[in-house]
Amino acid sequence: MATSSQSCGVCDLRLITKPCIVWCTECDEGLCKECYEHHSLSKASRNHIVIPFTDYQKLPTDVLKIIQYCSKHNKKFEMFCQKHERPCCSKCIVKTHKECRDIVDLDDVIKNYETPNALSEIEKTLVELAENLQKIRQHQQDNMSSLKEKTKEIEKEIKKTRMEISNYLDKLQEDFMKQLYVLEEKETSRIGQLLSLFEKKEKEVEECQKNIINIKQHATNLQMFLSVKQIEEDVSSKDKFLQSLFEGDDLNQHFLEYEINGAFQKIMFDIKSFGEVHIEEKPADIVLSRKKAKEAQIIVPIVQSRSIESIKMKINKKINLQGKWIYGCCMLPDGRLVFTYNRERKVRVFNNQGSKEFEMNIPCGAFDIVYISNDNTLVVTSGESDKQCLTIIDLERNEIKKTISLSSDNYGIVLKDNQLIYSAFNKGIRMINLYDEALSDIVREEMASEGYIATFKDNIYHTHRLNHTVTCYNFQGEIQWIFKNEDVLKNPLGIDVDSDGNVYVAGIHWNNVVVISNDGQMYRELLARSPGFRYPITLRYYEHKKQLLMANIHDEARLFDLI
């Protein structure tokens, strides 16, 4: 590793300290005036590249830290492995790269490498990066400002709602108190009339008592006899009146009772908050500069991707799927195979020998399926269904773990960086986060039903069975290429991509499987039109095993080895 010592490296070994005037990039040390003179004349070092030490000191720290020799074997780099894009010493080639074929001379690579042009392009890319970072920073600052503005709007709306509720309750209270006062006045008036009647009767009784006293003192026997009869009739009349009051309901005691409207109590139990506030996520509307894509990378000899012409398929096994209308398939890490049965609304799992292990009913419907290794689950799309949702199956318990409701019919699905990407009928290509179920749009356009999805690096691939197209998008929703050739691929459905970016597509009309090159320009039929395997619908490619799994609309699946 380069050091920043200002003394001559050769003199240091002789325990002499002299300032260096040049730096030899190949010896990786500084040289004083005398040592430099010998260095420039020596046969072993006369062709070494040296630079003034003052220029060497101006190099960035990261450049000074670059190792210019093999740290493992302490030998000089001599060759360059194109496969691994790595410089090698003579021992590296023997021990580590003996299987590699693309080994070239390091000096030739350096000689052919256009350093000034590359640095110029890197500078342009850095300018673009700075512009894009500024755009992103401004976008996020605007986002922060909009959050503050929205917070003020929500606070204002809450206060307004609170005031409206308060005014409404005041009106209810006012109306209720009027009703209460009317009832009280009515009952008070009724009782007042009874009291007036009782007061009148009491006076009549008192008058009768006085008359009896006067009769006793002053009346003759005849007068007394006649008066008693009259008084008895009067007393009897009053007694009957009193008895009639007891027998009737005029003397019933009246009470005011209050029963609160149950809706108010329900409010206190049911309403736990003033509302719900959440973050809605939408794709950033930033247009980034992409004038020189990937020009900042070091230009070295590139290993060519696997040509579609060299791809061959060899049958590994056939599986009797014990049912029809199979629209989705996937392979589990242990080699088990999983299939969806659209019309039966079922998912079936088969073991390595092709025997059915278990099956499960999917209430929402079953179209495509994808495996999630993080929690050992399967996610099933519902396709065209009365219940538009994703069904998540727990493979540990062989039961439905949860469902996620969606707003559209959903078909092909893939997993990308813990996000589910699916084809939404008449909506486009959508992405849903598994953690918070936040939904975002990648492609906003009307999609046909039964569209399938695949991803590779920064691209998304989608089939459109009505337009007979395979479209490659980037994650900003921009079209990279479109493949359309109805003579070879008609009504495309299932799709997947290998590690070289080659695209495999099932064509149901021509009963074939087509592979398309990573740039969308070339194609080849892998599985030719044959009555032996009719109506292929779904397929999946598995890189670790170099295998292609496919199933047809009837009751058969086939597993192929790609060689």
Structure notes:
The chain has 563 residues and is an alpha+beta fold. The chain has 3 domains: 9-114, Double Stranded RNA Binding Domain; 118-270; 310-562, TolB, C-terminal domain (Neuraminidase, 6 Propeller), CATH 2.120.10. 31% of the residues lie in helices and 29% in strands. It has 9 helices and 32 strands. A hairpin with a 3-residue loop joins strand 31 and strand 32 (556-562). Helix 7 packs antiparallel against helix 8. It starts with 8 loop residues before the first helix and ends with a strand.
Computed structural class: alpha+beta
Report the CATH C-level class of the largest domain: Mainly Beta
Count the helices. How many? 9
**Adjacency order of strands in the biggest sheet:** 9-32-31-30
Give the oligomeric state of the chains in this entry, treating copies of one chain as homo and distinct chains as hetero: single chain
Number of domains: 3
Distance between the termini: 44 Å
Radius of gyration: 47 Å
Strand content: 25-35%
